[in-house]
Structures are given as structure tokens and as C-alpha cells.
Amino acid sequence: DMCTQMLHSGSRTAIGKMCAYLEHTDENVAAINEVRRYLVLGAVLVKAHVCDEISKSMEHEVSVGLLTREEQQLLSKQIATTALKGDGKKDRFPSKNRPAFAFQRAHTVSSQLQRRGAYNIPHTFMMVEQAITSMSDAFEELEHLGQTVIPLPYAQLTRLIAWLFLLE
Length: 168
Hints:
The protein is mostly helical. The chain is 71% helix and 4% strand. The protein is built from 7 helices and 2 strands. The chain has a two-stranded antiparallel sheet with strand order 1-2. Strand 1 and strand 2 (90-92) form a beta hairpin. The chain is globular and about 60 Å long.
């Protein structure tokens, strides 16, 4: 629940700051929409990762405009690495790292705005970057929680305490 709140808070803060502090030119509005798309895509990809939907083709995300065809190709079909030694195995973009792709793209668009001088108050850029980073951190926390093994005695004790609570 806390990680979900972090995702929501990060996206709200980043977009809110960008809308409040960036001049509303056509170019800036397009960049804000692009960052928004990447942040929503990141949250959707986090959900897909948590729900073990990592192997899906992402056609729905393309159909609703969260993902372009080129990005879909990059995430699902394009070879990302090739082993230099051994059998020369070729790997695609790691499906469990797809949310990081979306957050990295959001950082890239925000950085392009900074280099263009669009942020008229310098600390605003850092606030937007911090909000995007907090979303990425929430994904890492979810990943850590998913990899944590609960010892059997702890799980049994938790079940017993829940039963005692319900019986009272």
C-alpha cells in the first residue's frame, strides 16, 4: 500500500510541478504530456510486474496510447545484449525491468527541458527529478518485497494470531 501511495504521490508531484512552473508553450505542454505518459506507463508496468503479467505483448498499452510501436518493439523484440563468450546468447530487454525503462524515459524528457532552459526556477527541475526518482524507488521497494522470503514459523504464527483475533 505504501509503495502504491509513493507511485501516486510521485506522479502527482512531478506533473503538478511541471504544470505550475513551466511556461505553457506548445513545446513544453507536449513535453509535460510525454512525461505524464511515461509515468502512467511506469505505474502500469509496475502493476504488470507485480501481477506476473510480464510476458504479455503490451498491445493494450499501445492501443490506449501509453506505448508507441517503436517502444513496444524495443521492450519485447529488439535484442538488448549479446553474450561475447560462450554460445553468443541474445537477450531482449529484461521484462522485469520494464518499469525502469519508463521512469528513465521520463527523466530524459525532463532533462531535455532543463537543458533547453524551460525550467525558469532552477530548483523546480530538481523537485520534478526527485518525484520521478521516488516512483522508481517505489518500484525497487516492491521488487525487494517480492523477493523477501517469509520463514515458515513466522507465517504460521501470523495465521494463528489472525485466527485468535477472529475468534474473540
